[in-house]
Amino acid sequence: MKIGICNDHAGVAYKNKLMKMLRRRGFEVVNYGTDVEQSCDYPDFAHRLAEAVEGGEVDLGIALCGTGNGMAITLNKHQGIRAGLAWNTAVGALVKAHNNANVLVLPARFIPYRMASLIVRTWLETEFEGGRHQRRIDKMPCR
Q1: Number of domains in the chain
Q2: pTM above 0.70, yes or no
């Protein structure tokens, strides 16, 4: 499985650690984020990741910024993206099980790295439940 990852300046350190963890677990990882901690604009990186997921360059995506909100808002502007913001493992599981999120968004300034790592692993291991949740996803307009 190929996973794309993006970040702004607030997510550089976590992104680097997550990339190593994912590669150790056998995933191919593509970096769409910045590698420097100098202030930058998160939409530039969110759009790159969203286009890669939509275009099939990667299977899933992970995005990090300070609160996660800017990334989630930007990512969800894309037709083929269901980005879910998670701050603990329960939410990480539910954004996959109930929303079939194809991008996981993490708030790098508000959770410790250990939690970020656990959320990513939980999200990757969780299966979409389908059923009533698919019916709800089908009601999300794609323009």
Answers
A1: 1
A2: yes
Asked if residue 77 is part of any domain, the answer here is yes
> Where residue 60 falls among pLDDT bands split at 50, 70, 90?
very high
Which amino acids are annotated catalytic? 65, 98
Indicate whether 116 pLDDT > 80.
yes
What CATH number should be reported for the domain holding residue 76? 3.40.1400.10
Q: Is the dihedral of CA 29, 30, 32, 36 positive or negative?
A: positive
Long-range interactions of 19-28: CB distance < 8 A, separation 24+: 21/117, 21/120, 22/120, 27/1, 27/2, 27/3, 28/1, 28/2, 28/3
